[in-house]
Amino acid sequence: MKTRSLTLAVALALAGAGSLGTSVAFAQDKVQFFPSLTGRTGPVAPNATPFANGYADYMKLVNARGGINGVMTLVEECETAYATDRGVECYERLKGRHGGATVFQPLSTGITFALTEKIPNDKIPMITSGYGRSDSADGGVFKWNFPLIGHYWVAGDVVLQHIAKKEGGWDKLKGKKIAVVYHDSPFGKELLPIVQERSKMHGFEVQLLPVPAPGVEQKATWLQIRQQRPDFVIMQTWGVMTSTALKEAVATGYPRERMFGTWWSGAEPDVRDVGAAAKGYNAVMMQHGAEFDAPVVKEILEKVHGKGQGTGPREEVGTVLYMRGVVGAMLAVEGARAAQEKFGKGKPVTGEQARWGYENLNLTQAKLDSLGFKGVLRPISTSCADHMGSAWARVHTWDGSKFVWASDWLQADDQIIRPMVRASADKYAAEKKIQRRAPSDCQS
């Protein structure tokens, strides 16, 4: 399994570190290990690569800022090619390295499902921002899972809210037909419950169109769409599947302005090959979009790429999926920082201690702004019961050359989603014979 370390060397450049030998000793004594499961090869490579680059670059920026209260970050990558079995192998390989893993971010719903069975025994938390199990927002059952800042049901609800608003209200969706083109895998199927729930509430018809992985064969799918002419198409796609869908939509004449991707279906690699023909295509964003003017982006360009230490191409910095990697790294670091406040400031934390930090995140707007995310993210606050911490999103639209915001901030409806999360978590607990956490297990 291919692995590589990316960020420890940045610690050597810190002011006051002394001679090279002293720097190495200092860095090795105080390291916080963040394994990175990457998809630089395979069907999602164009999308997963910028995520991995953003993740690594932010960790380098943290070290350039002085680490986590002096504790240096260390990233080691292991390539999964988006395959569940390889993801599990990477997890087993990395979990005990460099003093033990702080947190895993698998960037795959299939890998997330597999690791959910393992992490309670290993006492290592897992962040799955925008993917994985939607029901893992329930910290009472999923003690080690953290779908921070959103999951698929948030994405689906926000997309439907946006469509309803454009049509003039939920009542205008009655009798309409919404097709869902989805990756025929746990990733694709995770979206369906919220769409089906809203369908029952508002009287629109749902047409389910599964597409086998990797998603490059969609002619039959779009023939069905051409024949049945749904009013809208929602796409739960990832990697080459998204650009393939857009090309088929162009070929069959389906209006791109009536197509809505979820947040893994709306980045630059998805539309680059289609170009102007994709104009009008929409996708919901997990708060951020492309953020070339964000303070954190400017700081990465100055302190990481400006020093010749960038992980990928400079022009990629600030793109949608690069930013998703940056956000993922920030959440990983801030959970460890929160854990230090309880277990020892300036000391590396264990995975078990980091788990407490992710469950007690309080990223206020002032804190986010100070980290460089002004205008990019809204406050995030987790608890024992709520392992998601925020349900805000926005929709952006491809104008033929770039993505532009097409909605104000939207928030998923907690009155609908919370009971769904609870019911699904309870079902999982019953199947796995897991007891809900006692109140004593939730005390700070």
UniProtKB/TrEMBL annotation:
Keywords: Signal. Pfam families: Peripla_BP_6. Residues 1-27 form the signal peptide. Residues 37-399 form the Leucine-binding protein domain. CDD domains: PBP1_ABC_ligand_binding-like. InterPro entries: Leu-bd (IPR028081), Peripla_BP_I (IPR028082). The keyword Signal applies. PANTHER family: BLR6548 PROTEIN (PTHR47235:SF1). Belongs to the leucine-binding protein family. This is ABC transporter permease. It comes from Caldimonas caldifontis. The lineage of its organism: Bacteria, Pseudomonadati, Pseudomonadota, Betaproteobacteria, Burkholderiales.
